[in-house]
Design brief:
Ferritin, Ferritin-like, single chain, Ferritin-like_SF, mainly alpha, iron storage
């Protein structure tokens, strides 16, 4: 099925966002593992895996629409030097993703591609859960202080 060129371009932009997020989250996850914060390591790693699944869905949809998935372009990646910076950068990445998915959902509706819109809505719901999880950790840090919070992240 030949898809709308503008929508395929948008899907490739979303794919670049997802591939960038995977890299950022994996580095943050491994930094946490290196510091001994196994719970954060696992949590960040699971978020990266979720983003991989999003990338897979986008690639499949681009191919279905007879487009070419572009996997060689990444957006800017921000690596935090400590946990609060990591969460700040991850939050910003999720905010950007949410805005981009909302715009893509509108575009998919405008070009009457409701199947693509449904896929994008599913991914948007995951992104909402991701930002909620990040905000939960940021709230815990603000309530407990960072040193106490970090003691809860060691297994």
């Amino acid at each position: 099925m030949k898809g709308n060129p503008q929508l395929i371009e948008t899907l490739n932009s979303l794919l670049a966002d997802e591939l960038s997020a995977i890299n950022q989250y994996i580095v943050h996850s491994e930094m946490c593992a290196n510091w001994g914060y196994d719970k954060l390591h696992n949590r960040f790693e699971q978020r990266a895996i979720s983003e991989m699944k999003h990338a897979e869905k986008l690639i499949a949809r681009i191919l279905f629409l007879e487009g070419t998935p572009i996997v060689s372009k990444l957006k800017e990646i921000h690596i935090g030097s400590d946990i609060p910076k990591q969460l700040e950068y991850d939050h910003a990445a999720e905010e950007g993703a949410i805005a981009a998915y909302n715009a893509a959902i509108r575009l998919a509706g405008d070009v009457n591609d409701f199947a693509t819109r449904e896929i994008l809505e599913e991914i948007l719901n995951d992104e909402d859960r991701h930002i909620d999880g990040i905000e939960e950790l940021q709230d815990q840090i603000s309530h407990m202080t960072l040193p106490i919070f970090l003691t809860t992240q060691v297994e």
